[in-house]
Specification:
- The structure is a homotrimer of 146-residue chains.
- Chain A is mainly alpha-helical and 146 residues long.
- The first copy, chain A, contains 5 helices and no strands.
- The first copy, chain A, has a single domain, classed as Four Helix Bundle (Hemerythrin (Met), subunit A) (Up-down Bundle), CATH 1.20.120.550.
- The complex binds glutathione (3 copies).
- One glutathione (GSH) sits at the interface of chains B and A.
Chain lengths: 146, 146, 146
């Protein structure tokens, strides 16, 4: 099993490093703009960094869940590649948002698209597995022929 | 291994679709009530939708983790069924909360109960596996006999 | 596969119980300080409890992801032990933060260190698996010899 998920696990580790990096930016911004916990509001510069990290954190579980389901049931290579694209998109989202509210939009659309593809591949992979298991129909063969 | 988790993976994909749907509602509500990021406060109608999605997001990782542990260590069929009930409950929670604060309570109690059962089954499954592995005692046979 | 992850699954269940416990504290605090949803601000005592749970929830997916990757690719026993330490640290973080903002710092540094070690072990485990799989080099043997 390990060989089937090692790339997906690698992308997960990169995602963990990225989230840790975003958290550190919030901690630095708290110091820079003197916003001590439990406060979460302050100057707009702080609030954008705070929300950028919050938004990335909110989607991280969705990202990881779709990454693993797609990696396990669809295809590891393609999934890992999409995962990398997503993480790169999130990096630009974070710094775009930190600069201005509008700056978050372009990378957000990109990440949203990649996330939808990951969810789509997960759905296709699971449906093919189910149809093979319960109906005896190997749909994946048709999918890969197309 | 795939056959043992395909239903649980299917419920995970449905959960991802539901979370994406909740996120879209927040985006629509931001437009409707003119609450631009990074702001998170606004009219109560907006705040309820915003918090409903935040609350569902907060519990999504707990849901997925209990779903997979229970599916792997207890029983896939029962787990997938409970997972579906949870997701239906969360749908009613979201729209109940969007209408009024009180409206969230009934579906919340329902989801909480299902979530507790999932955690309970996870605990039973893991304990049975541990006792079989480390004590040589097959408790699951007793459990399934009851 | 079950035997290779049963301890990690056990720590995950303990983590779920801890998160459920933190959530209950927020619900009690909402009653005690009369902060009804969708409100999230109130007296500092409430806000510290609210943020303590929010912070623990935010990091829970990172914790679980690193726990499973490290457990699968590095070593289950060490990973489960570190996971327990993290959960104990989070307990002290929660109650430290509930008492005062400063009270959260010592356990936070402890948790952060444990979390970094878990991410580090995940990275080492995945890199060793990759090098074995794609380069034919069994680095884990060297690692365990050191
Ligand atoms: N929690 C998010 C849910 C929806 C979402 O992901 N929105 C995108 C597009 S408006 C975003 O960038 N939100 C900014 C933020 O979360 O601060 C929100 O409050 O907006
Ligand atoms: N983050 C939650 C943790 C506890 C919880 O899940 N509370 C339930 C019952 S009071 C809820 O519906 N909270 C509404 C919300 O999160 O906005 C909170 O702030 O209340
Ligand atoms: N969401 C966190 C991200 C960074 C973080 O984990 N900060 C630590 C050290 S300042 C913390 O304890 N934050 C308190 C909190 O989240 O309320 C924050 O807003 O601070």
């Amino acid at each position: 099993m390990h060989d089937q998920i090692v790339c997906v696990a690698g992308v997960t580790v990169l995602g963990l490093l990225e989230q840790a990096y975003f958290s550190l930016q919030v901690i630095y911004a708290r110091r820079k703009y003197s916003v001590s916990p439990p406060m979460t509001s302050g100057p707009p510069e702080f609030e954008r960094i705070f929300r950028a990290q919050a938004n990335c954190s909110e989607y991280f579980p969705l990202f990881v869940a779709s990454l693993w389901v797609s990696g396990l049931f669809f295809s590891q290579g393609l999934t890992a590649l999409l995962g990398l694209l997503y993480l790169i998109g999130r990096y630009y989202y974070f710094w775009g948002y930190a600069e201005s509210s509008l700056g978050r939009l372009k990378p957000l659309y990109f990440c949203a698209k990649v996330q939808w593809v990951l969810i789509g591949l997960s759905a296709v992979g699971v449906l093919c597995s189910m149809s093979r298991l319960y109906l005896g129909l190997d749909l994946m063969r048709y999918v890969s022929r197309v």
